[in-house]
Design brief:
With about 475 residues, the protein is α/β, with parallel strands linked by helices. It is about 30% helix and about 25% strand. A hairpin with a 2-residue loop joins strand 4 and strand 5. The longest helix is centred in the N-terminal third of the chain and has 26 residues.
Amino acid sequence: MVVGDFALDINLVVIGSGPGGYVAAIRAAQLGKKVTIIEKDAIGGACLNVGCIPSKALINAAHHYVDIKAEKYGVIAKDVIFDLARTQKWKDEQVISKLTKGVESLLKKNKIDIVRGSAFFNDPNHLRVMIGDQAQSYQFQEAIIATGSRPLEISGFPFKGRVLDSTGALSLKQVPKSFVVIGGGYIGCQMASVYANLGSKVTIIEAADNLLMGFDSDMVDLVKKQFSLKNVDVITGAKAKHAKETKNSVQVTYTSNDKEEVVEADYVMVSIGRVPNTDDLGLQMAGVEVDDRGFVKVDDQGRTTQSHIFAIGDITPGPALAHKASYEAKIAAAALAGQNVKIDYIAMPAVCSADPEIATVGYSKKQAEDEGIEVKSSLFPFEASGTALSVSDTDGFVRLITEKNTGLILGGQVAGVGAGAIIAELALAIEARMNVEDISLTIHAHPTMSEALLDVAELALGLPIHI
């Protein structure tokens, strides 16, 4: 039973404690705001608890298993066993728990009040937080909404039983003998790689003509090559129709080339996109406008149609990336503190931790040419890298996209070992408006994978050493 309550006065309220919410709360507190953060689930949000971090943990564990079984480097082990239940225990207790406790500690250290419950706006300056059948109302001066997103559920595939969303796929206690993935995007390819590496028979069903549509085709080809080597069936141009659960399996019906097909597996994971968590917030009551897909309309500071309410991260237009949310969080907090700031990044890096890892930032060659920019594309293969050879991982490359006349770095792509780390230097180069000579004059430590950036810069200058 909900009892009547008196509204408590608070200054700045942040709704959601994911990589957007907790960063916004901490930065605002650092800038002098008195902050209250509201979280209905676990501190750290989806990314830390059921997304980026746990997936990275499983990806890493699966890679260790593959390396040991492959008897690389003369390391030979007998009777190698992968105990997924123990891996899950390590992931939950040694990774996720430590990080969530760390984030909560940071919030408390910055004197941020933590309120548990579900927030709902009553009007532009009042909200109510529900905790079970209890409620507490608050009157706030300013707000930052950072409620994130959730997996999209499609007709014919309700999330229950053997039909999983990404959260369910990250929580299995036994390696499935067979595993179907609906959707060949970031999450789909990453989880397909995990279970293929652990020995599952994996099938990917993708409606588009290729996997990972945001990446260049030669990068995707490397991922598909690895899938082929691990006996993963990749079916593109196919439409998933429905799933039928039996006693010990699930049957997935799909159409391909106008023909209906059925594949049977232990589990099916649906990963075809995410939807913003804006439908249960009472945004209409607050006078905050959303578009027809539920994304909050914001300006270049993250300000909504209510000048004192901001929105950041997955609930705003753009890619659903944790680092985008964190970036926008700092802008919104600074704007609320009266600073003259705006969202003005030149490039937003994207990384997919499939096999191999692939990353991109800024313009691709095609994107630049479509905008009428005359560019030069320079590629350095990892097979020419001493470090890649020493770690027995030579599939991949670094590519620079530069303005032809000036050498200005417009974009870059990395495929292969360390791609997610290497891309950071290219992101910095683009943001700093650097050219290839700036990279070539920067001393890179040897032997490291980052040297490939030096090599590709020298290649772009027409002065290559190692190729």
